[in-house]
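Cont'd.
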Amino acid sequence: MSLQYLKSAVAENDTEKLIRYVRLHLGDGNETAGRKEIDKAWIEALKLLLDVPLTNSEFIFATLKQQSPATLAHLYFHLHFYFVQRSGAWIHDGTL
Amino acid sequence: MTAPSDENKQLRPGLWETINERYPGSMITKEDFIPLARLRKPLSQTRLTFVSSAGVQPKGTMPFDVVHPVGDYSFRRVPSTAKIRELEIHQIKYPTSGALKDLNVIFPIERLQELASEGVIGGLTPNLFSFIGYQMDPPTFERTLAEDIADAVVADGAEAALLCPA
């Protein structure tokens, strides 16, 4: 899958190709594993909020308002890996 | 020492076709043939540099962005005098467990330092060079990272380069 392949998928609104790429990326080339990794990250994030802990909402809203969509998208990928790592179930070969 | 490579042959002629088969459309293709460069003087008088896609970097430098879906097109300079304890790996696309026990298996800096001190090679450039190998945009890779490293290698006075994919 080249970048051009992905851009063509965007142009054609072929969401299956795009999400498959994300799953492959997050699953180190294994689409099924990637799907589980997405679930894992969301579950970890949810668990952290169940007790309604004090969080820095100002930081969150300021970040969303002040940062570019591309920066937020980049952050989104980092957050995924952060929560996956935090879950303790690390499937990747190396380290962040 | 092996004889200089035949100018009319690439090291692995079928390599690019194989990669194109696995990652269709993702390879840089070149119509013009670029012959391998010959050594201009004995290895014992040649200043060597090392370029690696292992994601090795000095501690305290900006970590390679291993999560970016399209890749990180930056490189790090690793001082050729560095101690292994001063280095770390940021990379999730290859098994690093062995390298974390002995970095030399993927980034043989101590072996290179030994070769230099023993006079097998003429010396090392002030810096060695490292990047991560996960790149989804070959044209950007070529235009930025490859060109940047090439410029840095030349600026460091390299007379030969050892390239090592992780």
